[in-house]
């Protein structure tokens, strides 16, 4: 018996279709996959690649179709166009939400097939592979059915070279036999087939067998030769025998691994063409079909900006109502207060006006709920959680006010102390306590003015502060938080939604393996990214218009500047959000990370826009950084257009645009670096 050489260079004499020489590859220092591997696939033959699980068969096929690189060595194919290559990945890698025929159209269009040709091929494969009805959605098919559809997709364009990664896994023997018969027939027509399989006996039908183990090819011969040489009855025994022999020579595996990594890859002639109308049409077809199928998701995308802006405008900055205030009125019980007191002159003692009633009536009209006979505990803490403040009026409150008014600066100490209302406020909620402080002070002046007017006196003759607020420079007198925060919410909405959509779509396409499959079929990454961004841009335009209509038409928030400038700014913000999403979708290996990174970054950026608190109060280091984060300058630009009617050429507005565009470029640049550095970036590795 001849000694079977390790790493045998083929003795097959036919023209080679695939030649791999001195291939080295490792994923990590301890994961050497190829260690000087040589392989030759003869043209017009079926080559069965066998090897234990994890020996590198899929990696090898990946290097042949251009989805992975070798660290060193060479790969040569007899085909120079992707059109001549048909690759069936290990996982089905189809568009699960599309129907079988829609998948045929996506991949048929990529290769420039006409509708008629695609339909014809679909018919042929339905018969050959016993496919389910072509209108079935792929995700509803069984594993075996999906695998058969995947094989049909691989062969739709009638390629010269078939690279098939375990096409018969999970199929019944009849179907497997049918597939092998078809492959043999194709080989007799001059097609070359490289096929991996775990079913060793099935591989007997191949013209040549390659047995791979520990980074090398142990043998490469017709199956019958191998069986004879090893004096075995079947291929399984050959495989075991060769494996045992290699164990004995294990030291060979640690042969000198090249120090320099060259990233060797196959190249196809049409690869220089980064953008092709034919391929772009196919990708857009796929996007539109997916959108049509996912109409509920699209509807949700349209509703989201409306709901976000509605919720935001209805909750943020709206004055709290129905706050409960405990009242201890030592002057008179509240039920003795009446409407007459509000109109009568308090200086006329016979009218029995209680000013505490007049004051409390103002609070009641402002929607405060007064809790009567409230008991103040000794330590002045509020006894009930829902009581936000407690007010205590002295017994001789009205009398003391009159005394103070009549005597002016000569008022007695008793009159001064008797006219003071004590108030205890729960400050655990700063917004609410500030609101109460503001209202109780405001109504002191208001009710004194009203009371003096009831007596026919000049309203300013009472207690008032010598300060006059003129018209606001920007904004209105109410100066409320909701108008301030409206533009911020709009900005965040326009950044966040494109981030999540783009990141999500890219991630899902990577996870399904369909994106990588499209790229192997020749679709360039640029075509894919541009198509996703185009769809997102259309959606974003709708979302921006909806969100602006809710913000400015429904809620009447101030938009002093041009609506067109504001729309353009929101589109620029959306573009940077999209690029951020793209970076997240490409860089993460699991969905949870993508979602966490997207939401986490957006929450952090929302804080640094000054939405919840002015940035002027932040730590000076954070303030310095926050200014240059993606949403800070755009928010300032949006505020400037909304409140100050700045034009698009004003430096503040230009800075907002510049920030969004620069960030978009930064995110794209990071994405490009990741794409050029990482192996198999277009697919998430499955176990
Ligand atoms: N992207 C990757 N990063 C790190 N290691 C990887 C990667 N892809 C594959 N590997 C490792 O490389 C080795 C070869 O994997 P490969 O999938 O090529 O084997 P295989 O022979 O196809 O296995 P199977 O028959 O089970 O599909 C395995 O040890 C695997 O863990």
Automatic annotation (TrEMBL):
Q: Which residue windows are transmembrane per the record?
A: 295-314, 484-508, 529-555, 561-586, 593-613, 652-676
Compartments where found: Membrane
The molecular function GO annotations come to: ABC-type transporter activity; ATP binding; ATP hydrolysis activity
- Gene3D superfamilies, alphabetically? P-loop containing nucleotide triphosphate hydrolases (3.40.50.300)
**Which keywords does UniProt give here?**
ATP-binding, Membrane, Nucleotide-binding, Transmembrane, Transmembrane helix
Which membrane topology term applies here?
Answer: Multi-pass membrane protein
Q: Which residues form the ABC transporter domain?
A: 18-239
Alphabetical list of InterPro entries matching this protein: AAA+_ATPase, ABC2_TM, ABC_transporter-like_ATP-bd, ABC_transporter-like_CS, P-loop_NTPase
Pfam families referenced in this protein's UniProt entry, alphabetically: ABC2_membrane_3 (PF12698), ABC_tran (PF00005)
Q: Which Gene Ontology cellular-component terms appear in the entry?
A: membrane
Domain of life assignment: Eukaryota
Q: What is this protein called?
A: ABC transporter domain-containing protein
Please report the organism this UniProt entry assigns to the protein. Answer: Parthenolecanium corni
Q: What is the lineage of its organism?
A: Eukaryota, Metazoa, Ecdysozoa, Arthropoda, Hexapoda
